[in-house]
Predict the structure.
Amino acid sequence: MSEVNGSAAESTSGLTSTVVFRLGSLGTVATDRFTRKIEELGLKPKHVGLMAALGLAAAASQQELAARMGIAPSLVVSLADHLEDVGAVRRVRDPKDRRRQVLTLTEEGHGLLDRCTSVARALDEDLVAGLTREQRQALDEALRVMAQHAGLP
């Protein structure tokens, strides 16, 4: 019977105790909260991801951004269309290769990215409110190492 309903041992050693499950669950909560906040800015998380990718490096082609973000080039085009409409990115033909569209963040884009960063930092504070300063530092270090190991920025 306990196999069907779950037991106390299952709750501490089963799926819900895995890093993958816990990070996934917390990630869903964090993403939902972030999504609600940035909707007020007319953005979705992938828009912010594209702006963040542009913020990490100078101008980049749509193809390079697709590879960097691990998404389809057609999605980059769609995201860039919206960001261009709101004045956050500028598309320019590469003078060395007229087939390439190069994207750069505009001043408006940098401002939007800063606002999204502020939103994320406020949500961070809420998410880690129950942790001590030492626990926050340990979490930050662990997440940094895990992201680096996974090849993330």
User: Anything to note?
Assistant: The chain is about 65% helix and 10% strand. The beta strands are 60-61, 89-94, 97-105.
